[in-house]
């Protein structure tokens, strides 16, 4: 018998080995498929855009977040150090790493973090400037009061206008310093009518040129809150209403406060007949104002004051401009 002839036993052994190799290959293939599926799920699970590239720059793997900002990939390049990229008005922190013939790039959206950092910087600068301005403004205020007693009667209106301007500057300084330090409420019981008297006096001192009717509350009730902070909160809304009416084409206007008590919150609804709000998206954004002469802190500070009292401030939906202020009722 020739040595090259395969015996039946050898053939069966060869067939068994072939099946064994095929099974091992299938198991290895299944294991690789499972591993690839796991990697894809992990990449998809990550909250930020992830790209895995071949050494020629082609995309080997990416998650759904990356697909949504596919143009961002064109701005990226592998670097040893982290770096920032701006895309579509947002800021991204880019990290890259490489392993064998693959490169991984990740983009973390840091827009909100950058915004907070910028706000903190602006707040510090504004607080510093406010401290510097406070002393000369105090001197001017004292001198204007002395001048008003000595000036000729026909010039009293000029001095009053100076005092009104100083009053507005002092409000801006106070709001800026409070924003930089944070709002802390010291709650005590008092009657609404006492606060409303101060609001009426403040509106008269604020100054306006048109005939404005103020429809305030007739009923009295008890609040447990920080009197000074609520005075700031409500005067912010009343002064905004006055400014809106001053910008309107009509010769007169109306500001109204309506009150409700639902057992959980004291609710105040403030409306005015002035010009509408142009950009509602920036209403509660610090240092961004919907008014030409605003400093962008009034509504932000008002919301912080309301929240310090367990409450809220919001602009209600609808054609009419209505702000709702809620203050928690404490036992």
What does the model show?
It is a single chain. The protein has 331 residues and is an alpha+beta fold. The chain has four domains: 1-45; 47-109, PAS domain (Beta-Lactamase, 2-Layer Sandwich); 111-182, Orthogonal Bundle (Helix Hairpins); 184-331, Heat Shock Protein 90 (2-Layer Sandwich). 47% of the residues lie in helices and 22% in strands. The chain is built from seven helices and twelve strands. The chain has helices at residues 8-45, 64-68, 111-150, 156-181, 192-206, 227-247, 298-308; strands at residues 50-54, 59-62, 83-87, 90-99, 102-109, 188-191, 211-215, 222-225, 252-261, 265-272, 312-315, 322-328. It has a five-stranded antiparallel sheet with strand order 2-1-5-4-3. Strands 7-9-10-12-11 form a five-stranded mixed sheet, covered by helices on one side. Helix 3 (111-150) packs antiparallel against helix 4 (156-181), helix 5 (192-206) crosses helix 6 (227-247) and helix 6 (227-247) packs antiparallel against helix 7.
């Amino acid at each position: 018998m020739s040595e090259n002839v395969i015996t039946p036993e050898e053939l069966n052994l060869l067939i068994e080995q072939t099946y064994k190799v095929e099974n091992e290959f299938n198991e290895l293939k299944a294991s690789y498929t499972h591993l690839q599926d796991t990697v894809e799920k992990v990449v998809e699970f990550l909250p930020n855009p992830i790209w895995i590239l071949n050494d020629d720059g082609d995309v080997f793997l990416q998650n759904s977040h990356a697909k949504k900002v596919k143009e961002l990939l064109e701005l990226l390049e592998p670097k040893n150090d982290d770096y920032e990229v701006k895309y579509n008005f947002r800021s991204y922190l880019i990290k890259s790493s490489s392993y064998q013939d693959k490169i991984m790039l990740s983009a973390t959206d840091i827009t909100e973090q950058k915004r907070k950092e910028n706000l903190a910087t602006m707040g510090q600068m504004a607080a510093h400037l406010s401290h510097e301005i406070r002393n000369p403004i105090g001197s001017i205020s004292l001198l204007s009061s002395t001048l008003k007693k000595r000036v000729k009667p026909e010039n009293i209106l000029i001095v009053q206008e100076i005092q009104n301007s100083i009053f507005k500057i002092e409000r801006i300084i106070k709001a800026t310093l409070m924003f930089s330090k944070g709002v802390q409420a010291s709650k005590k019981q008092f009657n609404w009518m006492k606060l409303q008297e101060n609001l009426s006096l403040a509106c008269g001192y604020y100054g306006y040129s048109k005939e404005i009717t103020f429809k305030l509350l007739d009923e009295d009730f008890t609040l447990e809150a920080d009197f000074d902070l609520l005075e700031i909160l409500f005067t912010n809304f009343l002064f905004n209403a006055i400014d809106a009416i001053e910008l309107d084409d009509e010769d007169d206007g109306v500001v109204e406060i309506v009150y409700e008590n639902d057992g959980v919150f004291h609710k105040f609804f403030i409306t005015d007949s002035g010009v509408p709000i142009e950009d509602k998206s920036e209403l509660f954004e610090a240092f961004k104002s919907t008014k030409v002469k605003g400093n962008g802190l009034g509504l932000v500070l008002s919301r912080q004051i309301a929240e310090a009292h367990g409450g809220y401030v919001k602009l209600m939906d609808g054609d009419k401009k209505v702000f709702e202020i809620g203050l928690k009722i404490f036992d």
